[in-house]
Design goal:
Order of helices and strands: HHH
Distance between the termini: 15 Å
Strand content: under 5%
Number of strands: 0
Largest sheet: none
Helix content: 40-55%
Number of helices: 3
Amino acid sequence: MLIPGRRWDRMRREDPEAYAGFVATELPSGAPVAPQEVARVVAFLLSDWSSGISGAHLPVDRAQNAPSPDGY
């Protein structure tokens, strides 16, 4: 997730070439998930619309391959 001031944001600003390489290699969508995207999923799960969901693993990661710039 790209959060202002956090690791990927710092990497994006301080080493744009390394960040671009990470995105190209590990993020099939071409960008990390934004905090707003996670918030929308949380809002959905808290709503009545999700009443049929139980015990599900719901990744909100845009099919990201590695959990961090350093990999697994």
